[in-house]
Specification:
The chain has 490 residues and is mainly alpha-helical. It contains 20 helices and eleven strands. It has four domains: 148 residues, Rossmann fold; 82 residues, Glutamyl-tRNA Synthetase, domain 2; 49 residues, Helicase, Ruva Protein, domain 3; 97 residues, Arc Repressor Mutant, subunit A (Orthogonal Bundle), CATH 1.10.10.350. Helix content is 46%, strand content 9%. α9 packs across α11, α16 packs antiparallel against α20 and α17 packs across α18. The chain is elongated and about 105 Å long. It binds glutamic acid.
Length: 490
């Protein structure tokens, strides 16, 4: 096969948000197409109308594009095989299903729901009731408008073997297969038929998709063989497991007590939290693929040159959110301060804060090595912009301290800072170190109540710089406020 004729597709069903499992499948397809100079298609598989979620197709396209994953043909960009939305191709699916009936590989079935329910309680598969009904009769019943489905005539005996590129031969006992439905009574094809017809018509050479489709692989191969078509190269990617490798990754938010550093598995949530798309790509590509078991840092441009299917690992990969934070950190560290500021600002605005550029240029250097996501900046910085900070007096008093001691510290710090002509961090530092010595306290003991008084939190950017940026009016006001709170309870 001419390798540049490689054609792959990402074929999501619009049933909700894009999660990292789906995004990884899209990524591998995209990279494989680019590596081989082939084409990537996006096909929306929306024939299961019960699972359809309004708006999810648009969101999915947005999420993929944000990640940097593009396609050459698809519902939004068109292409020679338009339409790329499966529900608009039902005529084609119907005629193919009828063709299978004509050549004896499929049959019309008139069993109603009640009958199917009654046989399901006895067998676990369809009993073949309509399998051998005379075709002339069934055609008449179809023509008269009787409700029906079209079922595949599965082989009863023998085995079906299909080759997967990374899993090798997979063999199924045919007696386990039922005469599954190809075309439903609601006028829509079943996914198995629709996908195989579309893959063939669209010239798909490699089907790269999730392991959950492995159990349908024999059906798919049988459909293709019934038409007399040649099979694509099959490549089933491993499932993603929850952090720690326990269950399959499917929860909305993977945060658990065991894994408090976990994040949502949905791309748009990660985006909303301020992860960099490049960090997500780097993280995802390594969940089941490696170049040489050594190199870890990749970007899309590099990957398009080196990705191949042979290096995909068929064993399940556990999602490791710590690794995402790691790659995110690398992206942030590579950015200029003004780029970081530009990424942070929308998150501050979203929290109702009003950052200005002068302030941002002072703040970014303080937090750029401390944040993981851009959203984290809200926690680090909001007290700089708030008019008031809310404090419970008990928060101010450290575990090993008393109200009295804390009061003394704050009063002494206030006095010291008041005597400085202006707040410059070097100056503040030397004066507060002297004060700690004088009061016979460790520097930390002295600074903790000050940090709480001016920020309302236990953790803040470096305190001396923070005091300088806040400026003496605000600092002295906030310390005074904290003193008042303590005096009230003393
Ligand atoms: N529509 C299927 C899904 O969303 C695609 C399966 C396939 O790629 O063949 O999982």
């Amino acid at each position: 096969m001419n390798i540049s004729s490689t054609r792959v597709r990402f074929a999501p069903s619009p049933t909700g948000h894009l999660h990292i499992g789906g995004a990884r499948t899209a990524l591998y397809n995209y990279l494989f197409a680019r590596r081989n100079g082939g084409s990537m298609l996006l096909r929306i598989e929306d024939t299961d109308r019960n699972r359809y979620v309004e708006g999810s197709e648009e969101q999915l396209i947005k999420d993929l594009k944000w990640l940097g994953i593009n396609w050459d043909e698809g519902p939004d960009v068109g292409g020679i095989h338009s339409p790329y939305t499966q529900s608009e191709r039902t005529k084609l699916h119907r005629s193919h299903a009828e063709h299978l009936v004509n050549i004896g590989k499929a049959y019309y079935c008139f069993c109603n729901k009640a009958r199917l329910k009654s046989i399901r309680s006895g067998y676990n598969k369809y009993d073949g009731h309509c399998r051998d009904t005379d075709t002339n009769i069934t055609l008449q019943r179809v023509a008269s408008g009787e409700e029906h489905t079209i079922r595949f005539r599965s082989p009863n005996r023998g085995t079906t073997t299909v080759n997967d590129l990374i899993r090798k031969n997979i063999t199924v006992q045919n007696e386990q297969l039922e005469d599954f439905i190809l075309f439903k009574s609601d006028g829509f094809p079943v996914y198995h038929l629709a996908a195989m017809v579309d893959d063939h018509v669209m010239g798909i050479t490699h089907v790269i998709r999730g392991e959950e489709w492995l159990s349908s692989l024999a059906k798919h191969a049988l459909i293709i063989r019934a038409f007399g078509w040649s099979e694509p190269v099959w490549c089933h990617l491993s499932v993603l497991k929850q952090p720690g490798g326990k269950g399959k990754m499917s929860k909305r938010d993977a945060k658990t007590e065991e894994h408090p550093d976990s994040h949502s598995i949905f791309v748009h949530d990660l985006r909303n939290r301020g992860f960099h798309p490049g960090a997500i790509i780097n993280w995802m590509v390594l969940m089941g693929w490696s170049l040489d078991d050594k190199q870890e840092d990749f970007n899309l441009v590099d990957l398009e040159k080196v990705f191949d299917l042979e290096r995909i690992n068929p064993s399940p990969a556990a999602v490791n959110f710590g690794k995402l934070d790691h790659f995110q950190g690398k992206y942030v560290r590579q950015m200029s301060e003004s780029e970081i500021a530009a990424n942070i600002k929308p998150f501050l605005f979203k929290s109702g804060l009003e950052p200005d550029d002068t302030m941002m240029s002072k703040l970014v250097p303080l937090i750029k090595n401390r944040i993981v996501t851009f959203e984290d900046s809200v926690q680090w910085l909001s007290f700089f912009f708030k008019k008031e900070i809310i404090l419970a007096p008990s928060d101010l008093v450290g575990k090993k301290s008393t109200i009295k001691e804390t009061l003394v510290i704050l009063q002494q710090v206030k006095l010291t800072l008041e005597q400085l002509p202006s707040l410059e961090h070097e100056n503040i530092e030397s004066k507060l170190r002297l004060l700690a010595n004088k009061l016979d306290l460790k520097l930390g003991q002295l600074l903790n109540p000050v940090r709480l008084a001016i920020s309302g939190q236990q953790v803040s950017p470096p305190l001396f710089e923070t005091l300088e940026i806040l400026g003496s009016d605000l600092v002295l006001d906030r310390i005074q406020e904290a003193i008042k709170l303590l005096e009230d309870i003393y």
